[in-house]
């Protein structure tokens, strides 16, 4: 976000597989940069989190200190280079996720298919 010390980023989408390969506790590193017109963007700092932490949504746990390791090593009074506060986090499921009720496993019927089969069996008994 240009010319703003308190930016609010536009929403964006990252597939879970790309973010953490389905491992909800895997460390995710976020690098924060200051945008420059000439393309020489300045590194502000970084923080780490996980999908599980992010999925808690807006809470006290989703305020991240942005730390610049170079500044931390050089300045004794360095605290941080700011914070990032997560205001929202949304999980969209797809039918291709194994946790989806719509997922078509090659090994067993999904929940909907089992319910239909159970209903069909029940109907023929009556």
TrEMBL record:
SUPFAM superfamilies: C2 domain (Calcium/lipid-binding domain, CaLB) (SSF49562)
Gene3D superfamilies reported for this sequence: C2 domain (2.60.40.150)
Annotated GO MF terms: calcium-dependent phospholipid binding
One GO term (biological process): cellular response to calcium ion
Pfam families, per database record: C2 (PF00168)
Domain C2: 1-64
Family matches, as InterPro entries: C2_dom, C2_domain_sf, C2B_Copine, Copine
GO cellular component terms, A-Z: plasma membrane
UniProt xrefs under PANTHER family: COPINE, COPINE-9
Protein name: C2 domain-containing protein
């Amino acid at each position: 976000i240009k010319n703003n010390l308190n930016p609010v980023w536009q929403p964006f989408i990252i597939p879970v597989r790309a973010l953490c390969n389905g491992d909800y506790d895997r460390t995710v590193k976020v690098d924060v940069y200051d945008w420059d017109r000439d393309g020489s963007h300045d590194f502000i700092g970084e923080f780490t989190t996980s999908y599980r932490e992010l999925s808690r949504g807006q809470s006290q746990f989703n305020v991240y200190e942005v730390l610049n390791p170079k500044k931390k090593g050089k300045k004794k009074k360095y605290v941080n280079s700011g914070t990032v506060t997560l205001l929202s986090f949304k999980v969209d499921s797809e039918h291709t996720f194994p946790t989806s009720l719509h997922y078509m496993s090659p090994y067993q019927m999904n929940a909907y298919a089992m319910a239909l089969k159970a209903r069909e069996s029940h109907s023929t008994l009556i």
